[in-house]
Amino acid sequence: MTEERRPMTGGRRPMAGGPRPAAGGRGPAGWRRLAGLAVVAAVAGVAGWGFHRVFPGTGLLLAIVPAAVAPALVAALTARRPLWLALALDAVLWFAGTIPLYQGLEPAVFADVANAWQALLTTLLPAQPEPRLLVLVHTLTWAAATIGAETLTRTRTKIVAAVPALAVHGVALLLGVDGEGSNLPVAAALFVLIAALALLRDERSPLWLLAGLPAAAALAALALVLGPLLPVAAQPYNPREHVEPPAPRRVDSVSPLDRVSAWLQIPDRDLFTVQAGEPLNWRLAVLDRYDGVRWTSGARFQPTGGRVPEGDWTGKVDVVRQKVTFNGLPGTWLPAAERPEEVAGVRGLAVDPESGSLLAGTKPVKGFSYEVTSRVARPSKEDLLAATPVTDPELTAFPAVPQEKLFRELAQEATKGADAPIKQAYRLQSYLRTNAAYDVTAPPGHSLKGLEFFLQTTHRGTSEQFASTFALMARTLGLPSRVVVGFRPGQVSGGVYHVKSGHVMAWAEIKFDKLGWRPFYPTPGRSGAKDDHEVASSAIEESEELEGEFTQGGSDRPKTSQPQATGNGEEPGDGLSPWVVAAVAGGVLLVAYAGVVAALPWWRRRGRRRDRRPEQRVLGAWRQTCDDLGLRGQDALTADDIVTRHSGEISANLRPLAEISNFVRYAPDAVTDDAATMAWQRSDAIRRAVRTTTPFTARLRRRLLLR
Asked: What segments bear the compositional bias annotation Low complexity (predicted)?
């Protein structure tokens, strides 16, 4: 087709928005746009579901569903309105969507959005589905759905609308590295949905969907099979490895070890019950820092939804399940057997990954119960004899005081001739059990002065003095040690162990390479008293088996319990002010809007110019010209109306362009590439003329409103 003028047909004339294709043409149909918005919403929702490794359960749906659906509805209703109006509606609806999440208005929602990512990186997965954490998923999904829906509505791109959702899926992959389950099915679903979006935007026959989607599903299924074989699947990048864990914090104002003597004076106070298949010692608090006056804890508690990281021991274990019910145990410490691996029924649960100590978010009330699954290590005799202590200066630190010489000399005397670290530990245990007596009435305290008096003068004490002395003597031998406060099994009745204040006890632990922490019980039994649980500690049994090197053991007598206090705590910061977060968020939105304002018109013009069909390129040139003239959306104007409104260079190029576009309406199949090239030459000339005749302020206002 050449540039010759063709008379415009009367009657049905083309509108300002561009001539519509003839019946049977290949222009986008309304159902395709709505179906595309539905697919974009599904893509955003599936990407949000990628956080299922972070937040297990259906609570995640409350954050995802409205965030994926609402932006698609807004885009459908504001397709012919300015972009700023759509974004404003989305912002209002986003905030409204946080109300059911928080079950009310929450002024700190902006601060939560800013801080949630860091909180998740210091959380042991699975995370508790708390609103302050879920709001991050809600926001990311909403942003992906908003950008995708507006991109699909206002451009002619095919799959660019799915890119934000893919970014959200990438965030979910990073934050969920340590979580249970797999995101391969999520990735496969995204692949199928993006394929459906591409087929819809390609404006092909619906039959292509029937043929293309099964093919995409087959490829996704193949990826599900091959995905686990990729090298990255075995060792994925984990951002938590580069995040500083929380600082140690004080849990109680009084150390559990300081309460031992007081608890032993009122031995019949009910504390808690444990329903378990076998009697075990119930550990409560771990103390690994000593300053010469008292033992404190360096625990770094991290929130968790119930999982406790594994310890160093990977060999044979007994799995023990317990149900613990509080009857009067004070504080927020939670007792459990050995090292827990999973906890259920505790809201706001936190755990110290190093020791496995458990902490409740709020003080448990009487009748509160939870379930624990623990792993009780069962190393062999060979494992114990071959064990070597780990090297950790913090766990062998001894205050620089004169008493160190006394502790070292006694430790060396007690372990003389021992040719293995584990034998040194057992001989040290035997030495204390046979050279001092258990006495509930002994003076309390575990300062170096008090322990010196215990070793040289009284030779009588409770497990507070025995465990503290053992741990400090072990440190002089280079054995990394700590003190544990817990409880003996208690009195059994019908498979339930009733633990009282008199069952509290302290013992020591030494850390060995690969074995992890091993318990030692240096406290002797009370003279003439019968044990009330018939369970000998594993450490004493091991000492009897190892070539007769160690003393015969009963069990440790009742000693102290109680919630522990962690020392050297640092209070977490208050975080950023909500106003600062809101200001930063506003600035980010303005910058993002400016980027869209700059990029969207260029992207739209590029898509119109590069369409593979010449008739669509002609129509795109006409639509582009209407946009440049500021007539976007004024469909009531005809081509004649537009031509008669302009004169000069604009009119000289506008009339031929209108005639070419009008021809496309009636004979789309006859349009050639030359005609499309000519149409864009006319459109470019009009664009230049408009820029020279339109004031800058008018052009800027039109650009900011994206009209």
From this structure: 8-26
